[in-house]
Amino acid sequence: MSTTITVAGTAVDTRHWIGGRRVASAETFTDISPIDGAELGRIARGTATEAAAAVAAAQEAFPAWAATTPAERSRLLHSIADGVDKRIGELAAVETRDNGALLRSHLRGVMPRVAHNFRFFADWLLELAHPPFDTRGHTNRVSWDPAGPCALITPWNAPLMLATWKIAPALAAGNTVVLKPAEWSPLTASLLADICAEAGLPNGVFNVLQGHGDEAGAALVAHPGVRRISFTGSVPTARRISQAAAANLTPLSLELGGKSPLLVFADADLDLAVDLAVEQYDNAGQVCLAGTRILVESTIAEEFTRRFIERASALVQGDPRDEATDIGPNIHPRQIERIDGFVQRAIAKGARPVIGGGPNTDLGGLYYRPTLLTDVAQDSEIVQEEVFGPVLTLQTFDTEDEAVRLANDTHFGLAATVASGSAERADRVTARLTAGTVWVNCFFVRDLRAPFGGSRDSGIGREGGNWSFDFYCDLKNTVTAPKGWTDHG
């Protein structure tokens, strides 16, 4: 069986990348394209054996990489970014075929952001410093020491971009990495391994372990040689990872699900608010930050709904490789079943589909119609649980206090969006919202200097800027006495 497949005109190796070489497995799994259900190839199916080999390679490479100067690490990360820039077209085409997201988004935003992730942390590394401070004449110096091999487990909705949010700071910090990409979208991780090797990254510093979460992923996070675990994905999987990490006291960073509110007040720019609401269908609703619970002040709810239907009905659903397409397919048959299950149970309990309400049978396969449900109870499943598809709910409120109460009334706390024409109201409301990120009159503006993460069941910890280095490093404070030195060495 060939270990190389051709996807969108690009050769992709289907094996693991461990210790600077390609490694096969005895078993494989099938990777399909959500665009048309076509089989793209058979991917190496890692087990505890390959996980142990990957960690061993990362451990072996760690001392030399940790001792590499920040300037050299920065240079290599910029070289990786250069390699990404040269292959943006290939990376975009492969990832679109693999996970079904819009090609135009990959070309214009997602893949350029991959390169930016490396460049940002390459530059931030060189500025990383804490000013010395005095304690009774003693000098304190804070430093960030590399922690060791890192296990990075990443999702399928924006595979390469979300992986490099983790890979770039982990490498910049002087750690080695074992990446376990999602089995539903593994291909660009393999291409990134090629790019890292071409950039001159030493063998074993970056490793890719393919496979299923309950096999390769479980073995990886339970390995005692792993010193950091960063995971983006579901709450149930995070609980299992946390249990495995606890046995080794391995520090965790968890970015989990969301059920974020979008609050629209009567003083908002209504056209802007509608645009923000329709934007929540981005990536076929497969965005953890999406404001899927639209909360609208009752005095404008009828007009808001009318304009929303008009805008959402104009969205074009189809092949994500077509420039005119606004909404592509969902990732996998299991995900479509999950999405439709949520919607049909909600309808059975009285929810009313204003638009959508089921699969797009004209396109077949994995395409789900953009859906808006009204007449939903606050304690209903469709309001409380993450669907992760193009499904929104609409509820109304009468007062600011009620809006905040409804917004905070889930077990999540990842993000929130507020549409208001009053700066004073926006300040009052955002101060009371439980969320890691709040957007006011905008959505999805993400700066790597800012902390990113969630509250409650939406996660543990923050990454971005210094917060990334705080997580991926062992912080050290060195205290020096105010005495003269006796040696001259």
Describe this structure in words.
This protein is α/β, with parallel strands linked by helices and 489 residues long. The chain folds into 2 domains: 4-256 and 454-477, Aldehyde Dehydrogenase, Chain A, domain 1 (3-Layer(aba) Sandwich); 261-440, Aldehyde Dehydrogenase, Chain A, domain 2. 40% of the residues lie in helices and 20% in strands. The chain is built from 15 helices and 22 strands. Helix 2 (70-86) packs across helix 6 and helix 4 (103-127) runs parallel beside helix 5. The termini are far apart. The mean pLDDT is 96.
What's the topology here?
Blueprint: E1 4-7, E2 10-13, E3 16-18, E4 21-23, E5 28-32, E6 39-44, H1 48-67, H2 70-86, H3 88-99, H4 103-127, E7 133-135, E8 138-146, E9 150-153, H5 159-172, E10 177-180, H6 187-199, E11 206-208, H7 213-222, E12 228-232, H8 235-248, E13 252-255, E14 261-264, H9 270-279, E15 293-297, H10 301-313, H11 333-348, E16 352-355, E17 371-374, H12 381-384, E18 391-397, H13 400-408, E19 415-419, H14 423-432, E20 437-440, E21 459-460, H15 465-472, E22 473-480
Parallel strand pairs: 9-10, 9-12, 10-11, 12-13, 14-15, 14-19, 15-18, 17-18, 19-20
Antiparallel strand pairs: 1-2, 3-4, 5-6, 7-8, 8-22, 13-21, 16-17
